Amino acid sequence: MIRAAVLPAVGAPLEITGIELPEPGPGQVRVRLAAAGVCHSDLSLSTGTMRIPVPAVLGHEGAGTVVSVGEGVTQVAPGDEVVLNWAPSCGRCPACTGGEVWLCDSALAGAAGVHARTADGTPLHPGLNVGAFAEETVVPVNCVLPLPGGVPLATGALLGCAVLTGYGAVHHSARVRAGESVAVFGVGGVGLAALQSARIAGASAVVAVDVSPEKEALARAAGATEYVIASDSTAKEIRGLTGGRGVDVAIECVGRADTIRTAWDTTRRGGRTTVVGIGGTEQKVTFHALEIFHQARTLSGCVYGNSDPAKDLPVLAEHIRAGRFDLESMVTERIGLDGIPAAFENMLAGRGGRALVVFGTPG
Predict the structure, then answer these.
(1) pLDDT tens-digit series, residues 7-21
(2) Residue 17 to residue 256: CA distance in whole angstroms
(3) How far is residue 28 from each of residues 55, 131, 153, measured CA to CA in Å?
(4) Sign, Cα dihedral of 354, 357, 362, 363
(5) Which of 224, 276, 288, 219 is nearest to 251 (CA)?
(6) Domain spanning 2-160+326-358: CATH superfamily
(7) From CA 352, how far away is CA 342, in angstroms rounded?
(8) Can you tell me the distance from the alpha carbon of 221 to that of 78, in angstroms, rounded to the nearest whole number?
(9) pLDDT digits over 193-233, tens only?
(10) CATH class of the domain whose range is 163-303
(11) Rounded average pLDDT over 319-326
């Protein structure tokens, strides 16, 4: 019996309870979690903005140590340190064969399976495939990637979602070039990763936008050269910071219609807006036909940073080892499993960066 954070039903409070994990079957790996980041996607799953089968063990951004492996597994062995990959690519569908592994048709197919059981035998699904809000998890071998050397195991959990997403939004989706100006909307875990990534890309000006004045120090430490408190005049203020022109690139990490619209309005003619935030179906963004023609801007969605984790993790590890990317600075709170509901409340209130569940932490 291990402890886990279980979502019993959409909209219901999380339950920190004991669950029974099976031994790894053929092609599976059992991992003892060192840490798991609390991502806004987990909150979206709990509220039903994103749909998964329930009851489920939430958590998808994690890292840990392989405990045991099932028949046929040769890629990893007991004792190996790994990062969980919540969106593994099948390698066979049109998206994968076309080089867009982040859009794999079956990336989330595992969420429908039975992952574990409660003490009374109730079957549990793995939230976003990996069920990382638990002391241990059992996942298919394609849901683990070797943790690159020189990356701390606990903070390495952030590589599994926030860092790949923020880095990929800058380098793969928006394709920020040296000398360009960038605005990042939302200074949570993904936003902090995007700010650091914009600095790595050589952006000349990096504007961070958030509702919270308290996040300015976090944003500037991550690479922001300017900090703007979100308001009805945000676009005008950012234009004022860029000589009236607007930024070359806006990266939206909130998932709200008004923020997406503001990000679009913030970019220059011919600029690029990348939407990373996950919003609900009720969030409607409107444009009129003339402005689409006249502004000649690009608006694009971004899934998992348009990243290929197997290729991007080694690149990110080099930035971490060289001191260009600081994982530690993204973590604003270390908690136990019992602290996840409060971390959800902090996200809703716009407080803090990334909360990290460290297993063995009281609570």
Answers:
(1) 999 989 999 999 999
(2) 33
(3) 22, 14, 21
(4) positive
(5) 276
(6) Medium-chain alcohol dehydrogenases, catalytic domain (3.90.180.10)
(7) 12
(8) 37
(9) 999 999 999 999 999 999 999 999 999 999 999 999 999 99
(10) alpha beta
(11) 97
